[in-house]
Design a protein that fits this description.
There is one protein chain. 33% of the residues lie in helices and 18% in strands. The chain has 5 helices and 4 strands; from the N terminus they run αααβαββαβ. It has helices at 13-24, 30-37, 41-53, 87-95, 121-132, and strands at residues 73-81, 100-105, 112-118, 138-145. Strands 2-3-1-4 form a 4-stranded antiparallel sheet.
């Protein structure tokens, strides 16, 4: 599923500040958001509903430590699809795999880039051989295993001066 929206020009400074605050702490109370940006709680509630309905805020999630759940291997998998007619079915297939956290069309030699997380190397091998490479149209994959990560962030800059802290 590709999500494209052109709502950024409709967002004012208050909307952007709400989005910035929620990205840092999705459990932040509306009253606290209202206090920080100088609006009433009712106004913040209305703006949040507008942002959700417009798809600016897609969903609220808990960001967890994968190691705490025993998921210790992260890898990036480049996928070469032999013909564009196979891409839609491939993407539909990887959307159903919880181990695939991200799927991106990319430039260069390969068609797609996947970010995957699994418990161990055996599960990575099973995912690659039996689930990803088994999908129709996959001609080749190349996998890079992450040794360590210095930064991994989901925050999207909102363009608000100073952002949220």
């Amino acid at each position: 599923m590709v999500i494209t929206m052109n709502v950024s020009q409709n967002l004012d400074d208050k909307d952007r500040r709400i989005v910035a605050l929620l990205q840092r702490d999705g459990k932040l109370a509306q009253a606290e958001i209202a206090r920080r940006i100088g609006l009433s709680t009712a106004a913040v509630n209305e703006r949040m509903k507008k942002l959700e309905n417009a798809g600016v805020i897609r969903r609220y999630v808990a960001v967890v430590d994968p190691r705490a759940l025993g998921v210790t291997v992260m890898a990036f998998v480049e996928v070469f699809i032999e013909h564009p007619r196979f891409e839609a079915a491939f993407i539909e297939g990887v959307l159903a795999l919880d181990e695939v956290q991200e799927c991106h069309h990319i430039t260069g030699e390969f068609s797609l880039l996947l970010k995957v997380r699994v418990r161990d190397m055996e599960r990575l091998q099973q995912l690659l051989i039996h689930r990803i490479n088994a999908l129709e149209g996959v001609r080749q994959t190349r996998t890079v295993i992450v040794l360590s990560s210095s930064k991994e962030e989901s925050y999207v800059p909102t363009g608000v001066e100073g952002e949220a802290s």
